[in-house]
Design goal:
Radius of gyration of chain A: 20 Å
Number of domains of chain B: 2
Number of strands of chain B: 26
Number of helices of chain A: 14
CATH architecture of the largest domain in chain B: Orthogonal Bundle
Strand content of chain A: under 5%
Oligomer: heterodimer
CATH topology of chain A: ABC transporter involved in vitamin B12 uptake, BtuC
Strand content of chain B: 15-25%
CATH topology of the largest domain in chain B: ABC transporter involved in vitamin B12 uptake, BtuC
Helix content of chain B: 40-55%
Number of strands of chain A: 4
Structural class of chain B: alpha+beta
CATH class of chain A: Mainly Alpha
Largest interface: A-B, 52 and 55 residues
Order of helices and strands of chain A: HHHHHHEHEEHHHHEHHH
CATH class of the largest domain in chain B: Mainly Alpha
CATH architecture of chain A: Orthogonal Bundle
Chain lengths: ~325, ~700
């Protein structure tokens, strides 16, 4: 009996879920056209790329890092795949080349964070700038790469539907399932939690922390490539100039809003899904309400702020429990 | 031949300076400084006119604008937070000040004041959320970045046209934007003043120390009672206000209400701060680092731009340099103290005369005996580390202890004791003046006085700084023993300026002249160093002529005489050059001779090691400290000598049971009282045939 009382504790995940339900119900009741199957599919589809990126970010954040280079690793390797395919390479070769590129990026991030001990925030920021720079320095003919016909054999990941469900939603679902299994059912996933919770304790118990940190960034880069392919398939092109930081902030918010603490070692895939759907709901409702883009940003920001504020009032941090060096 | 070269090398080559320079806290900034110099050199060879006045003034103007924001974010970083919202605060403040000047046509000071307050208020939003509601800085400021930005975008559409179609008539405003004062851009002046203030704040003022304390360890800061919430909140207010100052200069220069104003600024300033060496997580940072980081990032981006590299290449180069610099700085930060540890200990060449080899002979000067066997013990187990002992006119016995107190044992039986005074540091040498005020040398603290009313007062804890010394030798690190001169001045020894009290063994290993004798003049309340480069000067006693002192140089195993007055003023003469052990305190005996405590015995091995600086240097580098060779401080003796340097008497405890370890002794009414810094007791022994009315201290008034 006691356990059920404990499980009702108002943690951030519960707060955000509650907030989501309230907003969802309000929209469903007061907003005509919101609670229809078609609209709900549009809602999820509109955030599925964000959700996939959030999954990659979640792995890194659980390991007490952060990956700000994800937008660059979303666009440049995906554009590379498309360029190579358009140049006549076999799609498999093209995809392998893109994968190799994104894995290399992840390794660079990981080595700099794990071995050079540069803060993850700074490392991934600089690597992101560098990757965007590589994308802009003559690798591609144009800034915007069109989806080549040669890749149409895999274009379904962003476009097609099965039983009325868009594949991009299924891609999100599949990615979520894989990441979930990785985090919760494999030893490496467990080690990531251990490292995020307490790096030195994990090392003392014999976890080889540094290679696993590299693995985190490799995985997030790989997931970013996947998201990039889904995105470019669905929008039929990839803009290599989207080295745009507000988007990465959205990714972080999705992760953290759902309840994955930036101090690491907490949360899972469920948190990402809740965060993603909350953002999707807000954006979708406001689009129906015809709120301007800036207005949407404002409202979204205020809602996020109140969610974070509510959490810190309900679960206050104090000087005794706060970790030194958390920001 | 080789020996001579080695001797000369260790005598004249200033080994110790490298460790001392490396140990300086400003060496932390070495990597950013090197990167900056490298950047400047590189671009000035690649680009014509890179360091021309026009280009420099342009760069400095931009650097100052950026610098305001970097300063702000640095303050926040030092407290242990982060402020991403500066970009949007910057944009909003830019709009506001332009609207004030262009549309409302407010006077310049009013516009500036309004904008600064507005920036501070925006910062206060962050501050309240993070400081008082304990929200996470990164997320909170990220969200406020988005919120402020969207507010800016909403307003910008409405105010851009009115701003662009009106122009203020304010020459001052133009001067702020692109004018100069004494051919230095206005923005640079303003930034210089603000930066100087921030530097003083962080290094000299209490609120600045609070910032560092909260950033260094929030929990401790909270526990010692600092208003942590308020300090955190105020750092964000400061960041907001500094950002608005930057926006004001930016607005004055460009007068542009662009929609993209400030986009990405948070990344630039964060990069600048980290490049300068300010650490994420708090507690470390300085204004100098912020400025260096700002200059590096600005010169890099401008230089790459002017080299006409493509945007892509510029980004790759920028990212590479940022990562290299950060990696280097972090390695340096992490390993500097190891380098200091290896470099700091720098043994010198010290050749002691051959030890007297006939110690065991029955008639030898130092022949062992067992006269201390019958020492009575006072306060056994009740006192720890009585380095020096002293008695007052009523025969009460005083001694310092390890806990930083002075203990008084009551005459006549010395069974009862009390804490006479609490000092806070280990009391070492002591002396009474004629009013029975007790003067005490306190390790790590300086020279103190316990008045007859038991008030503890600081006499002096600093002396004049030597002109050419790298380490700051103005603070007293190890004041050791003192005596009061007939005219009331005080001469005291400071054993070493390079080590703390607990590191005395390392100083012994160095065998360098790190110590000095210092004169305190109570009339002018002035402290001056009178003798330098002494090898662990220890005990001090006034000579019989009242114009000189005798002092012990421990690691040199010698007693010297220094004339502070009279015809020989300033002279130093050797009295005893070849003691059997390391001399400690000296005090007068009733027959006009002197008692000398020998705290430890020389050994052939250690003497040899002192002639082999290279050996000791390798030892200090390669072995952990507790495996280093150390002088023997287990057994000592008491020696009576005269001013001619003759050994008159020696008292030993051969079996080492009662009182083997001796650092001081004091004759008082026919008894000799003995202290030893590693003892848990004070010893007392009756002296045969000594003057039973003799009192050793309390002769002269101070001042």
């Amino acid at each position: 009996m006691k356990k059920s009382v404990n499980s009702l504790k108002l943690d951030q995940q519960t707060i955000v879920t509650g907030l989501f339900l309230v907003i969802f119900l309000m929209f469903a009741i007061f907003l005509p056209g919101f609670f229809t199957a078609g609209n709900l599919l549009v809602l999820i589809r509109s955030v599925s790329v964000l959700g996939i990126l959030g999954l990659g970010m979640a792995i890194v954040v659980i390991g007490r890092g952060i990956d700000l280079s994800m937008i660059a690793t979303l666009s440049v390797p995906a554009a590379l795949v498309m360029t190579l395919a358009a140049a006549g390479y076999h799609p498999v070769v093209a995809i392998l080349a893109g994968l190799a590129f994104s894995i290399a990026t992840g390794i660079v991030n990981g080595v700099l964070v794990a071995y050079a001990e540069i803060p993850a925030l700074f490392t991934t920021l600089a690597v992101g700038i560098g990757i965007a720079g590589i994308g802009q320095s003559g690798m591609f003919e144009y800034d915007i790469i069109a989806w080549p016909v040669e890749l149409d054999s895999i274009a379904w990941i962003g476009r097609g539907k099965i039983f009325g469900l868009p594949y991009s939603i299924l891609a999100f679902a599949a990615a979520a399932l894989i990441v979930h299994v990785f985090l919760k059912k494999t030893r490496l996933g467990f080690f990531i939690y251990a490292i995020g919770d307490n790096l030195s304790a994990a090392r003392i118990t014999g976890v080889r922390a540094r290679p696993i940190i590299i693995l985190q960034y490799v995985m997030s880069a790989g997931i970013a490539l996947f998201a990039g392919l889904v995105l470019s398939a669905s929008s039929n092109s990839m803009d290599t100039r989207i080295f745009n930081l507000t988007w990465i902030y959205d990714v972080i918010l999705v992760v953290v809003l759902g309840g994955i603490g930036l101090s690491g070692g907490r949360g899972g895939v469920m948190n990402v899904i809740i965060g993603t759907i909350l953002i999707g709901t807000i954006v979708n409702g406001m689009t129906i309400l015809n709120v301007s883009f800036q207005g949407q940003n404002l409202v979204r920001g205020l809602i996020l702020l109140s969610a974070l504020l509510l959490d810190s009032i309900v679960n206050p941090r104090n000087e005794e429990t706060a970790k030194q060096g958390d920001i | 031949m080789m020996k001579t070269i080695s001797r000369l090398r260790y005598k004249y080559w200033p080994d110790q300076i490298f460790g001392e320079i490396l140990q300086k806290s400003w060496m932390e900034t070495a990597v950013p400084l090197a990167v900056l110099i490298f950047t400047i050199v590189f671009f000035s060879t690649q680009i014509e006119n890179f360091i021309s006045p026009a280009n420099l003034s342009d760069n400095f103007r931009q650097a100052s604008e950026l610098g305001f924001v970097v300063l702000g974010i640095s303050l926040v970083l030092i407290v242990g937070g982060i402020d991403l919202s500066v970009a949007s605060i910057f944009a909003l403040c830019n709009l506001l000040v332009l609207y004030c000047m262009h549309v409302w046509q407010l006077p310049l000071p009013a516009s500036i004041a309004i904008t600064l307050v507005f920036g501070g208020l925006l910062g206060a939003v962050n501050g309240i959320l993070i400081g008082y509601f304990r929200m996470r800085a990164f997320l909170t400021t990220m969200v406020t970045l988005i919120v402020f930005k969207s507010i800016h975008d909403l307003i910008n559409v409405k105010v851009a046209v009115p701003i662009s179609s009106n122009f203020p008539d304010s020459p001052m405003w133009d001067t702020m934007g692109y004018g100069s004062i004494l051919s230095v851009p206005t923005a640079v002046w303003a930034f210089g003043i603000v930066a100087l203030f921030c530097h003083i704040l962080l290094t000299r003022l209490r609120p600045g120390w609070w910032l560092l304390a909260v950033g260094g360890n929030r929990r401790s800061a909270y526990n010692i009672g600092l208003p942590v919430n308020r300090i955190v909140a105020l750092s964000y207010v400061a960041s907001g206000a500094l950002t608005s100052a930057s926006a004001i200069f930016y607005a004055a220069r460009l007068a542009s209400p662009g929609a993209d104003t400030g986009v990405g600024l948070e990344i630039t300033v964060l990069t600048a701060a980290i490049l300068g060496g300010i650490r994420l997580g708090g507690g470390k940072g300085s204004v100098m680092k912020a400025i260096l980081g700002t200059l590096i990032i600005l010169l890099l981006t401008n230089g790459l731009l002017r080299m006409a590299t493509s945007a892509g290449t510029a980004r790759i180069i920028l990212a590479t340099i940022l990562l290299l610099a950060a990696a280097l700085d972090i390695r340096w930060f992490k390993n500097r103290h190891k380098a200091v540890q290896e470099m700091y200990v720098s043994p010198a060449y010290l050749k002691l005369p051959e030890m007297p080899d006939d110690v065991a002979a029955p008639n030898a000067a130092f022949a062992p005996n067992d006269r201390l066997k019958n020492v009575e013990t006072i306060g056994l187990g009740m006192i720890e580390a009585p380095e020096d002992v002293i008695l007052d006119a009523d025969d009460n016995l005083y001694s310092g202890n390890r806990h930083g107190e002075i203990i008084r044992f009551f005459a006549p039986d010395y069974k009862r004791h009390e804490v006479y005074a609490r000092i806070g540091g280990q009391p070492l040498g002591m002396a009474f003046d004629a009013g029975y005020n007790l003067y005490v040398c306190v390790g790590g603290m300086g020279l103190y006085r316990v008045t007859a009313d038991r008030e503890v007062e600081l006499i002096t804890d600093e002396t004049n700084r030597s002109l050419l010394s790298v380490i700051d030798d103005s603070r007293l690190k190890l004041a050791d023993d003192l005596d009061i001169l007939p005219d009331g001045r005080i001469l005291f020894s400071e054993a070493t300026v390079r080590y703390e009290m607990h590191e005395w063994q390392t100083d012994a290993l160095e065998g360098r002249g790190n110590g000095r004798i210092i004169l305190y003049d109570p009339k002018h309340k002035k402290t001056t160093t009178v003798l330098r480069h002494l090898t662990f000067p220890n005990g001090i006693v006034l000579g019989s002529d009242g114009q000189s002192i005798l002092f012990a140089e421990s690691w040199k195993c010698s007693i010297k005489r220094y004339w502070f007055d009279g015809p020989k003023k300033g002279d130093v003469e050797m009295v005893i050059d070849n003691l059997l052990g390391y001399p400690d305190n000296i005090n007068v005996a009733s027959d006009g001779n002197f008692w000398l405590a020998i705290m430890g015995m020389r050994s052939q091995v250690f003497d040899l090691a002192m002639r082999k600086p290279g050996f000791r240097r390798r030892m200090a580098k390669q072995l952990p400290g507790d495996e280093w060779l150390a002088p023997n401080i287990n057994t000592g003796c008491i020696v009576k000598f005269n001013e001619a340097g003759e050994i008159l008497d020696v008292l030993w405890d051969m079996h080492g049971e009662n009182h083997p370890m001796i650092t001081s002794m004091r004759e008082h009414k026919g008894y000799l009282y003995i202290g030893g810094i590693y003892n848990n007791r004070i010893g007392r022994i009756k002296l045969d045939g000594a003057d039973e009315t003799f009192v050793s201290s309390g002769k002269y008034h101070v001042g």
